[in-house]
Design a protein that fits this description.
The chain is an alpha+beta fold. It is built from 6 helices and 10 strands, in the order H-H-H-H-E-E-H-E-E-E-H-E-E-E-E-E. The protein is 27% helix and 24% strand.
């Protein structure tokens, strides 16, 4: 049996999530959930942290084998929540989806469908816990959805749980029939690629023809307001203010692009037609850079 002291980091987190403990005390099985009950977003995070804490307590009280047996059973799931456990070799040893048992999080399992290597991030969790967002199969719907997981490293093992969310800007749901939504999804996918492959990898990829999707392509502007990624090599190294102005006559450097994103309309050469056209771009500040894409009228 593996024995250890429950860590102070989670205790500190749980002090700010007291509601989760009370919820878990009342809800231990899916059938205990009221069909009319809807979690608020804050409740979901608190509930998730509490569910992982409950798993740690079960491991401490009942031991390794009993914990594995319980969290490998359907009865352990609470609505869309289930606990997953990885061993010292980073392999899945407990999961609602039994097909994942024995899979290594350092392999393909730890890379979502956008290429984001969430497994590496997840394996960096400590006793203080860590939130990780990624795309993963929701066993309740059979669809890839955004999952928000809380993971904790304890006694050499990794304990986690989370909830799913369908976002309108999901790169899997957006279609070119709605060019604005699709543009937001392209930028979201680019940021995930950046997270997975780093700055150098993302910059290199978004210079290539392979990164172009019809009239959609990604551009990246650095801290000096110079274009460092674009499929047209003649534009690389150019200052954005040299490339033109917005439809309203504003300089690009006068725009307040933030992490929340900003729409910008301007005239720009459409590589598909060889003529200038009005371009609607969505730009997001990330890691000190501007990452954007857009479509042409």
């Amino acid at each position: 049996m593996r024995i250890g002291l429950l860590f102070s980091g989670v205790a500190a987190v749980m002090a700010g999530a007291a509601l989760a403990i009370s919820v878990i005390a009342l809800v231990s099985r899916p059938e205990d959930l009221d069909d009319g009950y809807e979690f608020r977003l804050s409740d979901r995070a608190e509930f998730t942290v509490g569910l992982v804490q409950q798993a740690l307590q079960r491991y401490e009280d009942e031991g390794w084998e009993a914990t594995l047996s319980y969290y490998n059973s359907p009865e352990s799931a609470v609505g869309e929540w289930y606990v997953f456990i990885l061993d010292e070799n980073d392999e899945v040893v407990a999961h609602l989806n039994q097909d994942l048992l024995g899979r290594d999080l350092k392999g393909d399992l730890g890379v979502d469908v956008t290429g984001y290597q969430f497994g590496e991030v997840m394996l960096g969790a400590t006793e203080d816990g860590l939130w990780v967002d990624y795309l993963f199969l929701n066993p309740a719907t059979g669809n890839q959805e955004f999952k928000h997981s809380w993971v904790v490293r304890y006694d050499g093992l990794l304990f986690g749980s989370g909830w799913y969310e369908v976002l309108p800007s999901s790169p899997l749901d957006a279609t070119k029939a709605d060019p604005a939504e699709y543009t937001v999804a392209v930028v979201d996918r680019a940021i995930r690629y950046y997270k997975a492959h780093g700055r150098a990898g993302a910059v290199q990829y978004y210079k290539t023809p392979e990164s172009v999707d019809g009239t959609w392509y990604v551009f990246i502007v650095d801290e000096n307001d110079e274009l460092i990624a674009h499929p047209d090599p003649s534009l690389l190294g150019r200052h954005v203010d040299e490339l033109g102005n917005t439809i309203d006559g504003e300089r690009f450097t006068d725009l307040e692009v933030t992490e929340a994103g900003l729409w910008v309309d301007y005239l720009f050469l459409n590589p598909a037609t060889g003529q200038e056209g009005i371009k609607h771009s969505w730009a997001v500040r990330y890691d000190g850079l501007y990452i954007g894409s857009g479509w042409y009228e």
